[in-house]
Amino acid sequence: MSEDKKLPDPSIIKEEILAKYPPKIARKRAKSMVVVDKSMDQEVQSNVRTIPGIITQRGCCYAGCKGVVLGPTRDIINLVHGPIGCSFYAWLTRRNQTDPGEAGPDGENFINYCFSTDMQDSNIVFGGEKKLKQAIQEAYDIFKPKAIGVFSTCPVGLIGDDVHAVSREMKEKFGDCNVFGFSCEGYKGVSQSAGHHIANNQLFKHVIGRDNTQPEGKYNINLLGEYNIGGDAFELDRIFELCGINVISTFSGNSNVTGFERSHTADLNLVMCHRSINYVAEMMETKYGIPWFKVNFIGGDATAKSLRRIGEYYEDPELIARIEEVITAELPSVKQAAKDVLKTTDGKLAMMFVGGSRAHHYQELFAEMGMTTVSAGYEFAHRDDYEGRKVLPTIKVDADSRNIEELKIEADPELYNPRKTKVELEDLEKNGLEFSEYKGMKNDMADQSLIVDDISHWEADKLIEYYKPDIFCAGIKEKYVVQKMGIPLKQLHSYDYGGPYAGFEGAKNFYTDIERMLSTSIWKKLKAPWLETGASDPCICAEYVA
Amino acid sequence: MSEDKKLPDPSIIKEEILAKYPPKIARKRAKSMVVVDKSMDQEVQSNVRTIPGIITQRGCCYAGCKGVVLGPTRDIINLVHGPIGCSFYAWLTRRNQTDPGEAGPDGENFINYCFSTDMQDSNIVFGGEKKLKQAIQEAYDIFKPKAIGVFSTCPVGLIGDDVHAVSREMKEKFGDCNVFGFSCEGYKGVSQSAGHHIANNQLFKHVIGRDNTQPEGKYNINLLGEYNIGGDAFELDRIFELCGINVISTFSGNSNVTGFERSHTADLNLVMCHRSINYVAEMMETKYGIPWFKVNFIGGDATAKSLRRIGEYYEDPELIARIEEVITAELPSVKQAAKDVLKTTDGKLAMMFVGGSRAHHYQELFAEMGMTTVSAGYEFAHRDDYEGRKVLPTIKVDADSRNIEELKIEADPELYNPRKTKVELEDLEKNGLEFSEYKGMKNDMADQSLIVDDISHWEADKLIEYYKPDIFCAGIKEKYVVQKMGIPLKQLHSYDYGGPYAGFEGAKNFYTDIERMLSTSIWKKLKAPWLETGASDPCICAEYVA
Amino acid sequence: MLLRHTPKEVKERKALTINPAKTCQPVGAMYAALGVHGCLPHSHGSQGCCSYHRSVLTRHYKDPIMAGTSAFTEGSSVFGGQANLMQALTNMFTIYNPDLVAVHTTCLSETIGDDLNQICSKAIEDGKVPAGKKVIYCNTPSYIGSHVTGFSNMCTGIVKGLVEHTGVAKDQVNILPGWVEPSDMREIKRIAKDMGAKIVLYPDTSDVVDSPQTGEYKMYPDGGATVEDIASSGDSIKTLACGAFASEDAAKLLDSSFKVPYEVLDIPVGLSASDRFITALSEAARVTVPAAFVAERGRLVDVIADMTQYLHGKKVAIFGDPDQLIPMVEFLLDLDMIPTHVISGTPGKKFTKKIQELCAEKAPNVQVQNGAQADMFLLHQWIKNEPVDLLLGNTYGKYIARDEDIPFVRYGFPILDRIGHSYFPTVGYTGGIRLLELMLGAIMDRQDRDADDTKVELVM
Amino acid sequence: MLLRHTPKEVKERKALTINPAKTCQPVGAMYAALGVHGCLPHSHGSQGCCSYHRSVLTRHYKDPIMAGTSAFTEGSSVFGGQANLMQALTNMFTIYNPDLVAVHTTCLSETIGDDLNQICSKAIEDGKVPAGKKVIYCNTPSYIGSHVTGFSNMCTGIVKGLVEHTGVAKDQVNILPGWVEPSDMREIKRIAKDMGAKIVLYPDTSDVVDSPQTGEYKMYPDGGATVEDIASSGDSIKTLACGAFASEDAAKLLDSSFKVPYEVLDIPVGLSASDRFITALSEAARVTVPAAFVAERGRLVDVIADMTQYLHGKKVAIFGDPDQLIPMVEFLLDLDMIPTHVISGTPGKKFTKKIQELCAEKAPNVQVQNGAQADMFLLHQWIKNEPVDLLLGNTYGKYIARDEDIPFVRYGFPILDRIGHSYFPTVGYTGGIRLLELMLGAIMDRQDRDADDTKVELVM
């Protein structure tokens, strides 16, 4: 494998990229493009405004709140208050699979529906509260849901509709339906990230902790930051079940409100996507005393490692033994699968620019196939996502983030119950468990690799020209742009309608899919033969990694 | 309705048609084109050679034998001995539906298969008997059928392969499989008709009468000349069942060899298609004493009439009452259906040129809708099909028919059992039953209508120009030709993949289908609007029938 | 069941839209802007809008869809987006070098009242727009009309921003194709060419959103109506505006500003609308229709005549955009099919009236509704109450089709789960045959599937 | 189960053909003859042959297929069919007034040894063929080869009967398209025209068997290669013969008789074969390939690149005619699909070899057989032993597809139960997109059908 191959120096291309920008922009972007040098601390500028006119991958606060966090929950009516578009675009476009099967053929599942107040100009002029109220009433009358979430889009905040007051009023009126609002207007913050935070806050305020029924299982956990894209959560559920671990709730893939309401009864919170959900983990620890640590179920070794950490956390030999059994049963076929694709994948280059944790986690999967990630970045990260939570105290809150509510949480007078004593936690940390910690993406990247936060089309274009990667990972907007350059692109938001990629089975799927993409014949036939000069070998670029 | 409307005189157009022909051809064709004058006997020349180069509807002897008569039987392997084409073209192209359901999911049904010896040039040169023998063996080995029929195509007779000897040999070898051959080479006779006769003969010689198990039902009949196109036989089965009449076998729609073998145990033979099957009816009467009469189940009234005749035959008040009950239950909705379409169909003109009995029977169905058949003819009739069986003694057998075997049948020494005494038959005849009789098509046609036997493309073309019929009935080869003239064509061989059209339900289907065809919008939009002169009203032609 | 909570009983709704049969204006403006060569669309609003619009267009076309955003923050929402747009223009021209930028607003910038005219004028004054480059714009408030309205508004924006009047008449006809696929635009050009009619067609997304894979990425693909051609449309003989909802406003503007008379036509989908289109084009361009078109038309008519039995009397539910539904409903009637439920989220009184007029004779019981609460939830409920034999509409229809087990043909926008629409036209006579192939295929596949073994047909 | 008696176990057969993947020569000759303008095909044999061939062609095209027959009786079979043919020629020229009659034999006339050359010469001598009219002919013994052979023989008959050699070279390329659909022939002409290549294409059934419905029946539709154009092909620069089985013999004859050199190409189905066709045509006609073809090709490549995941690794069973299977198998390989079972009833050793060569690298386990007993029964048994994800072939494949529940795309001859093949080409780059649309549609429809509620995808 290509572990110790030296990466090409990206400084030149960085300069070339910046040279095109107006000077102010260049200065700003320079701080978001960092050539990794692991020997030193490096600040990766992030969670700052997108520069207008720069073609960005980013979406908005609403997308992060409704689209990402609440979208995957099946038994809530997510009612979008605003003109029709925002609700339409978030309708079924994120592949969060959900299985209402357990609740029978009549089990609640509103995921396939799109609800909107479809605001019209008169609502903009005269206010939309009345229409919102009516819409909530109609939703309640038709569907009798147990919960309705109201999501504000851009104009709502501007015209001053108070979605929270309306929600409160309707909740009281209904009695049996939990109605609550989100002030997640698209212009809030600088990216989806603001929406995650708002979603976390409202879930914490309005849902988590409502049902104090204690779980029956022995090892009760929550899985945070797992959205069940392509069935990832199903695979993880399978593994947890094999291990005898009981998942109280997943935030928020294949989830239901019922689970959220009981999530505070868990023993442990596992955080997958640090960015989108760390707030909930933090708040649950403060309020209920549930510790959290970061896990990664992307990759065979990563999955095994994460499972082992759970075993260590519980310090229960029975659980530890069972986890080892599961790993012994499952991991070898994963290793074999990785080996099987190696002749196609070894030494190949990957780049990945995606939101959430994926740009980090998938580097491990690629490494298992002998592939090197030459450049990566997040779409809506904060500095801690790159540099680790150690930098949290040093992050300056700017104007764009200041208005995102920061909940003041205190230990619950009744329900606070530290799962582990301080001493126990310290002992576990000595043994390698890292509570409330995330070391960030940079920690796992090679020297000379290039981190780019909030990459722009221009930057991606030039990086591809420079690196000529074998595979590029990003989202739907980038997919066909990159492919037109002759480079296959793997969508890491939708998995290109493949997956699952999490857990043991997921890793195997991923290997196979990447092998397929790297061996697809058409990439060798892009040029019309009558134009062929014979000189354009698409692979000459790979030389410098050899 | 248009009962007494006077038809236009076709003499002029007949002249015009003949004028185009070379004189000898004209003289010959003139005899096959007869302007009906019911006040006199008129000879309709038929069953004569097709003129080479005239574009005809006709097929060949093989088509009549394998395609028509044996094709619909499900539990026999119909093995075509010859080059591949003949078997290929007769593969599933006749819409004879069959239901092996009664025999369970493993019930024999070879209808969807195509079997051929696929003769190669070496077989032509050195003879094909060896290959045939081997093919029969392979068919037997793979399928273990109870019967194998071998059909000869053109070269077989010429090269002298003896399919009968081979069949005999194999039959003896197998012991449990009835193998028999048909010398139905395509050049035999002048049309499919020769093939019908040959098929009738071989069925009679090799199948009928093999199983003497007596039927259990009270009223046991055979239905001859019904091929279950589009499920016609299913509808008739439904009606018979309602009436308590037991169908021993249908020749040969939805049929099986088992039924044929027992068919001689019936009380009565009902003949639908006179042309294709009268031989079997005749021979069964001679050998077993089963009377036959002609029936017609095409049309609501016709069906009622035919059922009543069966009742009369049995002279059983219980049966008669039950038949009346069925008619009372079923006929009114048929009448109503005819009434419902009348505003579209009344006064419209039809022409029909099809094989078998359909050109005759369907005139009645059209009449029920107020439509007039201005011209009709058969594809492969004999004179009796037009003029009635009374002319049988006067028909001269020409060279082409002389070689079709005429079986010498005598009363079976053991099984001959006249179902009715001579006196009984005479009494029944006095009451209107007509045994062994068919009055022919002309009998039911209006004065001034035009009979054309074996119509050619040129003749049809001119007749359409003259009559501008609202609907034309023929087969697949004519379908798109006629439609290109702007006239909808109803296929009466395949029913255009509609049907059933027999019986009560069938009549209703037919009314609806014809109404649909007459009211299809596209016929009014054939001309590109930029070519429209405004003058071409497609209906001016219908005036003379008003 | 995917839509297990949809009850059969229809309750009147006044405020809640469920499963919309429309989306918002800006995405239409973005699509229209892509129909100008060298144009970079720009979304003046929050980042999310641009991202969503690019995503849905990308999923529909499986092709790059590039656009800029003003990336509003809370500050811009309070103080106005002028600074953002000015900066965006500078950056876009500097970094991405388009020939022109086409700005549209969003509900955000509309609500705060940004004045595009003023901002763009200032940008030009301030030299933010390089020489030879252009900025065009239109207002697309998301809370009025639908995506179709946005398309229409950008068409008007194109006319306003690019058309010139030299006073020298040009022997050409303008065709505003309306919201159709690149394949359709390509086909209209082919038809005009084969008729010998000189036309200017815009917007023209062919060779833009169906761009070739050559291993070489072009940010501005070879297609799109050129600025020069568009400019010249002020000198044309006439404008044929296809689709009243998407094209009439722009045509009116060409008339009022440049005295180019116009005629509003249906998008040439199906036999009758294609007949009118060909006739109108031949009259406008003063060319006779070549014989080849008699044959082309005749082939469509032939398929209809030959296959009518599979179509006749079949009930159809259809949803989508008015300009696409109107000729399609007429086509269904020409096929003797029965338009049974017709839904469009796009408002406009004309629509219901038009559909009812079309259906008056042959399908008088048609249920039709558009605008507020005319959504796919209602359509689904209608279908539950009166089942249909065929469903036509965008990809979201799949969920209804599956639940109710109805043959389904994808028609309209967006189509997210199949390819073909961008390559094979549905306009014109050949497009009619394609529609027939698709509908017949769906109907016949169903017949094949549902037939008992006994009833399977070899020939159909 | 429709084919309930087909066992999984394969027993060797030596004499019995079951469910053939071919038919006999004359129908091919009839189809080829229809590709000459004003030609009335004539079947020299029993009536049934002519009736059967007209029927199957009619069912495939849903269009008039006219032809005469010598209507052999037992007498003619014994004494020879000369009198029948002489009379037929007289009648046909008198009554139906074709420009020419194209006679082919049948197994009957072949077995008795009728000498067409002699009979036709005599007919001409005897004045049975009016001035300016022609009779061409070929031998099509049904017991040799298959329908493809018959097509090939009539192509040769056309060359022999109509081509002339004036000695004045013409700047044109002959294209023998092979047995393809009228849509394909139309598309090849379009491609050549857009390339600026002057060609003579024959047979050309476009506008003959896909003739328009205008309310006016034309016994000889407007289409077909004209006798003049065919005559001139003796003076052409080169012949491109598409499909070795259907076109090579005629090309050879053009070479040997008229010194027109030839190149045998695959029918341009799919990417690679289309590439070779375009290149060969540009070289032969000495034209450079216009940029539009880079885009056309690029669109096909784009669809492949975008959709590869739905195709990659999918196992395919395919049956049909060699000339159509060879480029299709190559296309499947270009798509990274796995040709798994390949069957053709048409004999010829080249075929198996060619398929195995094509598959050697990517699908070395391909099962391929052609000729005797290479029938659909065997194919079905192979599928039972190794299931596939997709079946390609003519309408008869429906029975296997239904029994084994395999997605099915109609490809080849005959297609009796769907429309489309005569209108939409499968040749060339655009034809490739059509094939992709059909195959992807079948595969995706199946995915949609089989997905659990949980796994239904909105975007694909």
Helices and strands in order:
The complex is a heterotetramer, with 2 copies of chain A (546 residues) and 2 copies of chain C (460 residues).
Chain A: H1 11-20, H2 23-30, E1 33-35, H3 61-70, E2 77-81, H4 84-89, E3 115-116, H5 121-126, H6 129-143, E4 147-152, H7 154-159, H8 163-174, E5 178-182, H9 192-206, E6 219-226, H10 232-243, E7 245-252, H11 257-262, E8 268-271, H12 274-288, E9 292-294, H13 300-314, H14 317-345, E10 349-354, H15 358-368, E11 372-378, H16 383-387, H17 399-402, H18 422-430, E12 450-452, H19 457-467, E13 471-474, H20 476-484, E14 489-491, H21 503-518
Parallel strand pairs in A: 2-3, 2-4, 4-5, 6-7, 6-8, 8-9, 10-11, 10-13, 11-12, 13-14
Antiparallel strand pairs in A: 1-12
Chain C: E1 17-18, H1 25-33, E2 39-44, H2 47-61, E3 68-69, H3 74-79, H4 82-96, E4 100-105, H5 107-112, H6 116-125, E5 134-138, H7 147-162, E6 173-176, H8 182-195, E7 199-201, H9 227-232, E8 238-242, H10 244-258, E9 262-265, H11 270-285, H12 291-311, E10 315-319, H13 322-334, E11 338-344, H14 349-359, E12 367-370, H15 376-385, E13 390-393, H16 397-404, E14 408-410, H17 428-450
Parallel strand pairs in C: 2-3, 2-4, 4-5, 6-7, 6-8, 8-9, 10-11, 10-13, 11-12, 13-14
